[in-house]
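Dear support,

Our group has been running a series of protein-ligand predictions, and this particular one with iron/sulfur cluster is the one our PI (initials K.S.) wants archived with full inputs and outputs. We had some confusion internally about which version of the output was final, so please treat the block below as the authoritative record. The input we submitted was:
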Amino acid sequence: MHIEQVIAAEKDGDLQRIGKKIVDKERITPEEGVILFEKASLPYLGALANFVRERLHGHKTYFNRNFHIEPTNICVFACNFCSYSRLYAHREEGWELTADQMLNIVKSYDGKPVTEVHIVGGVHPKLTLEFFADLLRKNKSTPPRPAYKSFHTCGTRIYVSKGEKVDRRRTEIFEGSRSRFPARRRRRNF
Ligand code: SF4
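Confirmed final output from the archive:
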């Protein structure tokens, strides 16, 4: 189905109007973005997004080549969608990698065509900003030196707030490594 047919089939006048703007290469306003967020169905949004993607890139699709490191599954949170976290009180059911174990994972990819290390895991109540800042500094000087996408936003906030006395450079290393990873969460007792 062509995008014009998708837009014509849309019953909501606002969504139709915004769809036509996108087809006509007009920039939509922040308010119109909110309307799309609040009112548009996923298929309608997907059709508009794919239309713009193909207009910009044709039939090319790009993939990142990454590998994952999950330092621990011990976590202070209990996100509804999370299937693997464990409370510190039950840490014997989980895992906690040492810095050397994580560095060895990075080294094992030397010579392979990777572009990114993806680091996510639990927000461990006992690990510190200093631990992660040192880990990142060592990782960044260890081949194959890919880009880093690391840590939940909530974890970053907690580690940085716990590390107020750590020197500024280490904090910057840590903050510079974080990624966008929205996580709905609620506090647990631990
Ligand atoms: S913060 Fe991450 S590891 Fe912790 S419960 Fe949420 S999704 Fe799971």
